[in-house]
Design a protein that fits this description.
membrane; 89 residues; mainly alpha; 2 strands; transmembrane helix; transmembrane; elongated; 69% helix
């Protein structure tokens, strides 16, 4: 297993965890955002960035194609979850 794959798996796990846990924060007027999800997603982004840098470094400046596809999919999942977490409901 390449060492940068672990970072990608951690980012996927953190992004997936946000669909199972929540900690709503009231903004006023009955609206709330999910603070725990936003916190976890920041760590997911950090892990994705570290994994991407490691994949580029290990492959001579260009990440493998499978990592690029999984990384972009993970970034899309993180973006979707972050919008869902920070949109007041």
């Amino acid at each position: 297993m390449p060492p940068f794959l672990l970072q990608l798996l951690i980012a996927l796990a953190l992004a997936g965890l946000t669909f199972l846990v929540s900690y709503p924060l009231a903004l006023g007027d009955g609206r709330r955002v999910d603070v725990l999800d936003a916190f976890l997603l920041v760590f997911a982004l950090v892990n994705l960035r570290l994994g991407w840098s490691a994949a580029n470094g290990a492959s001579g400046g260009r990440a493998p194609a499978w990592f690029v596809v999984l990384g972009l999919g993970t970034a899309a999942l993180i973006t979707y979850a972050m919008i869902h977490a920070l949109t007041p409901r």
